[in-house]
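User: Sequence in, structure out. Go.
Assistant: Echoing your sequence, followed by the structure tokens.
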Amino acid sequence: MAHRGLKIALVFEIFHPVVNGIITSGQNLAENLRALGHEVIFLVPDTGEFREPTLGGVAVYRIPSLPCRSYPGMRYVLPWNRAVGEILTREGVQVLHITGPWFLTMAAVRAARNRGIPVVHTFHTMVHEADYLLYMVRFRRLVPLVRRLGWRFYGWYIARCAAHTAPSALACRVLTRQFPCSRPRQISNGVDTALFRREAPSLEELRRRYPWFTDRTVLFVGRLGREKSLDVLIRAAAILRGRPGLERFRLALVGDGPSRDSYRGLVRSLNLEGCVHFPGYLPHGDLLASGLLHRARVFATASTTENQPMTVIEAICCGVPVVVPDVAGIRELVGENGLGVAPGDPRAFAEALEALCTGDDLHRGASRAALAMARRFDGAAVARQMLDLYQEVLRRESGRAPKRCRAPRGRLALGGRLALRGRLAPERSGRYTFRYDEKNDDKSDDRSCNF
């Protein structure tokens, strides 16, 4: 379907120099939207570190912010910040696309609604998972209460968006369970598959920079936080150390994060300094140019909080077999291209890693299957799906008067009664009841999420 040129604003709560899956997929979406003849701008919190006026040809507008101590990388922005509205008006933005619920997003949603600009929301992060909520509270026993309050806070955003998307079937189910009127549409994260088909440095070139790297290196790339469960991979490495045929086995944990020192301490306590390595954070372009991803024997993650993780998709696009926990959300990315194992079980991970590190036939078959699967994540196709949604929203919202939109009152954040009367969908009225079913939240379901 052809579209007239649109002006889209993408909002990020975390931005460069930090790089995560949301930023990577958002940049890819912007690149492909521009290739299709549309204009994109980025609204990001000003960290004082990223000073470039553009990124990949996209104008970057930095909004004054303060650091968030409980979650490194996140920033506080005043919800009534006037600069956001001025930017939307001056740039002639027609669609606002938000990628997560926080205070810059709140300011952007308020400004957009007050100007009659429709808002599209993508549910990227499983914010209800305990490992994320423990950044906000010290005691696990408080997690259920904080989760309920968090969903109520999230409801403010849900009620003010014209459409919702999620990259995985699991995320669609979670959002539908909490907010039945949201009707999320499943649209995958996209990548530039051509980037991963280019010639990688040889093993000899790679070893000149990383002398410890071998042809039996297992790679993880991402945030070194507690939610990534890297202790499981480290303990799996301890199990594999010294096994016949695995003398060259190495585990590389690429990235940085608040739990880095804790993971390093675990490696020292298990005497794994020669086996487990921390190359540090690498910008995305440097990671691809380094050859670490292309030359890895296996890509592994033990995280159970993922919603179609970009790092796993990128490994698939490189033809690298994957080992992941067998849980909804990430299960959708594993078929013949890798192995899914019991979550949180170092021995199960060790057995799967050993099978792919020592079984050449199994490894070759998984690599071929990965390259075949990569076509599903072509960024241009994903951008066309998103454009169809933008155009659908614009047709539906055209002619509607702007609605005055205020930030939620203090009692909302503190857990007071949430009044969302008739706000979740035009055809519904009455009080909306929030609920959370922790026992069923991770169950697999093959039903379509495209309502």
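User: And one key feature?
Assistant: The CA atoms of residues 14 and 74 lie 6 Å apart.
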